[in-house]
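In keeping with the milestone schedule agreed at the kick-off meeting, the structural modelling team has produced records for the first pair of proteins. Each record is given below as a sequence line and a structure-token line. The laboratory manager (R.T.) confirmed that both were archived under the project's standard naming scheme.
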Amino acid sequence: MILKITLIILTLLASFLGGISNQFTDWTWYELLNKSELNPPNYVFGLVWPILYLLMATVSFLNSSNIYRLYIIQLILNSAWSWIFFVLQLTAVAFLDILILIALNVGILVKLFVTKSLISLILYLPYVLWLSFAAFLNLSILILN
């Protein structure tokens, strides 16, 4: 039970750490970037991420002993991405971060599939799909700027 609670706390901490990067972001820099036409308005990110963190916390709670190693590493990379991309403005490094993040989370999906945790797999899939979309947006910024 301690591991389950710890993963929920770490998920909330990752959300918080990623979120406070907004306080240190030069939004003028971001607004001036050329972006994909598929880039959603900024408010969409604020709507999507809380839902994804809730799903992540739920899956980590239900599957803690099976996924905790990959899950903790991916939380670190998840939190780091906002700082790398927005604060440090290292878009290429952020893209590398998100590619590793996707690979780790595909590993989690595989573990959920192998253990026949179908509900958890379905709950976790939106996060991996959103990461993939975010990687596309990150790559678009790399190419267009």
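The second protein of the pair:
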Amino acid sequence: MSRKPKGIGLLSGGLDSALAAVLVRDAGADVSCVHFFTGFCVTGHNSRVGRKNRPIANSALQVAAEAGIPVEIIDIARDYIPVVLKPKFGYGRNMNPCIDCRIFMLARAKQYMEAVGADFVFTGEVLGQRPKSQLKRKMRTVEEETGLAGRLLRPLSARLMPPTIVEAEGRIDRSKFLDIHGRGRKRQIALARKYGLTRYMQPAGGCCFLTDRAYTKKFRDIIRHGNGAGLRLEDIFILGVGRHFRFSPDLKVVIGRDETENNFLLQYSGEYWLGRVNGFTGPTAMVIGDLCGEMLESIASVVARYSDGRGEPVVEVRFSLGDEVRAIHTAPASDAFIHDYRL
């Protein structure tokens, strides 16, 4: 008796990828999944920053446990940064390299498939759902670029596509697969109820920061000012925190928007100058660059503007780096002044 075919799934934590896993399992395959951590995922960011009022738990782990499917989390963040900076197939509406992202992840999944002796890779992609990466010709491009032609199964739309090798050989029941097309999700939601899946990430939640216009603006700013080549994972997390102000090519300030972000920025007290208003409740400000004298008052005035002392004629703002402290008295900045520097 021949063994069951084994499939490796890409599990994002969303509904489509979870349904793909249970469909492939129901079709007669042994199933396990991988979840790739890129550093740009919103839930991963919330966990790193320490937000208590936003989703922190990994959705992939939650939905995998609910479906009874094993999943392994693989950190690809450092290797993924060059893909974001120079995507072969370009960006989507913002800085999202969707096709290159898909190719990169599937190439890693192929390596994993070969290492564990699996037969194919599967995803939750739906034909026509995303114009950048889920049109037929672009799906074929992904297969060619990854070397997965014949071994890449998309069960939610499989009946609209040529059969993969395991389907053609009759080792898996193709009739279990679907013919979903387009952006609607009624059929997926009905299937979720059938399988008892409730802990998946909502599509409207926005998993990837790179699709966000405001985040993209800040990301492009650091690339424009020469920080792309040496970009660190910590820099990516900082981009998702606070209000960002560009004062010069070599000087940027990040101002926390709430207690959680203020506490996050305080972790960098030994690396960057941090500023706070003395005597009033207010944000933590992190200065990325040299805190030179000519810009000190401008930065201090912006920090003061976001404190409870914003209505005072003059407040004191203290900046510290290690044991060194600089204090300046300044009037809080006007809205017009802030507009000129805010990203």
